[in-house]
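Thread title: Can someone regenerate the structure for this chain?

I was given the following input by a collaborator and told the matching structure tokens would be attached. They weren't. Posting the sequence so someone can regenerate them.
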Amino acid sequence: MTRPKRDALHRAAANWAGAAGLLLLTAACRRDLLPQPVPLDRVSCARCAMLVSDGATAAEAVFADSDPIFYDDVGCLASADIVARAPFELWVEVDGGTSWKKAREAYYARPAAGRTPMGYGLYAFSTPEKARAHDQDGRVRTWQEVQRDSRSRAPGAKKAAGW
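Best answer:
Regenerated them for you:
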């Protein structure tokens, strides 16, 4: 092998090694996209700025490259315009605050006596059966429906039917 070819091979190997090292470093610095404990009564909702004080209605957005942001109401999370450069995951407390579920995988209901911090009146559940059993009309809502309905209730807008 000639010297120029050998030098080119060494440079290529060094470039690959550098790229592999950078990839490993990036993976090592990336955070898990799992929900974090909500610091109740110590953090404000990222949407409405009210103190997050009820775990039964709490939600959060978890980012790979920064700290999570918290919400006091499922409707606040659903109506938020989240812009992120890195991957993120949205989480909601389900079944009265007993556990977490990804927002897009949870089931939602509007109980007749359901009161939430910002008045959206939506609660998240782990199964469609639980959501249906708690909904005032026996209806189960998806995350897409919750987002659409919550965003239509923007500040200053007239209340949508059923709100």
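Residues 19-30, 156-163 have pLDDT under 50 and may be disordered.
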